[in-house]
DNA sequence: TAGCACAACTCCTCAGACAAGTTGAGGAGT
DNA sequence: ACTCCTCAACTTGTCTGAGGAGTTGTGCTA
């Protein structure tokens, strides 16, 4: 009759501390009460408090310095990321993707190597092929955009882009089922322009073209 | 003659365990040796081993079940994010942050509410105070930037910003120890301009000011 | 063979002791 | 009056020893 086995005290203490941090009891960079103060306050032993602190330290919320104290290093332990993407609307995702892609396009224009250009052109050619399946078309488009982000040579931006695409893919496919002005010539011309800007090392034009493209996409999905 | 203060034993033990996990010594889902075995093997006490395990548990690598043992739950420590940030150079992080902040500044200019403006002005005032401690100054600056990102009303961008700041914080503080042109009047004026642009709903100016600020910061750290 | 008691493991928690680092107050010297 | 130094109080770090609680597999019993 005990389907819930209660969590260890250390885990409970960690959750409790995190809640109090989130509530703003201690601001970012501020010091927590000492372990010897916290322990009786939470009703556990000192070692347990230490394990709770270690746990939060592993999540990047706390950092302890010997002799000085324990300090808050982040207001929030990044919750699962995927959960954030799912909870947020598609517009928010596209705005974030626009932020990534415009910066990446500018960097790509400055840093692209010949090998990058080859990969981009290959992706552009693949995108140009007329496809019957919508999903395949979306994936080809995504591959082109990804190759440009990769040419920026910034691992973080690429990682972010990859995190967004799965979420965007569904919405894109659904949209194209309704309004199919996707494979249009004007749309493809816009992409060729973007590739040309990267090739010519024109960072500003690459950024603004990228921004314009994402913006029109956002409006189409609204 | 020890400019590098060595990390606590628990941290070292955690790193060591993570290395052995990455090396494949214990497969995913497999059980680690008991604490009493691990402790003498690593040359530390049991409580230290426990703290190391807690730390890795907080990062999602290990999970312990009372009576059963400690098990590997992920081959890679949330490689998703923290590891990427740590592995990447500070320049890459700042470039990503620039991407986030410029877009956020533009959105903030369009969407800021009176309540947002109050929060931003409060943060600006806090940043203006002359502070003796470098860390406090960096945190006050971060708080201002965060308030602007928050005014964009895009949860993803805010989440990303919060993910970057802990990593940037260290580098900023170290830099300011060397060149202290941080609290300068010109620097503060630039921030006032940015706030003014958001207040005036001038998205383009907010974006370019934000981009310029992050770029100068990147160059200072190079 | 099926079921059960139990012993040997495991992690969990506490308490106490001492080491090592940090900080700020207060005194000595200028 | 100011600077520098000493030091005491406080902080986290580490180890040890002692039980408590849960899990697992062995081997006995029916």
From TrEMBL, chains A, B:
Coiled coil: none annotated. It holds the Pfam family FCD. The keyword Transcription regulation applies. Signal peptide: none annotated. Residues 7-75 form the HTH gntR-type domain. The keyword Transcription regulation applies. InterPro entries: GntR_C, TF_FadR/GntR_C, Tscrpt_reg_HTH_GntR, WH-like_DNA-bd_sf, WH_DNA-bd_sf. Keywords: DNA-binding, Transcription, Transcription regulation. GO terms for molecular function: DNA binding; DNA-binding transcription factor activity. PANTHER family: REGULATORY PROTEIN GNTR HTH, TRANSCRIPTIONAL REGULATOR, GNTR FAMILY. This is DNA-binding FadR family transcriptional regulator. It comes from Leucobacter luti. The lineage of its organism: Bacteria, Bacillati, Actinomycetota, Actinomycetes, Micrococcales.
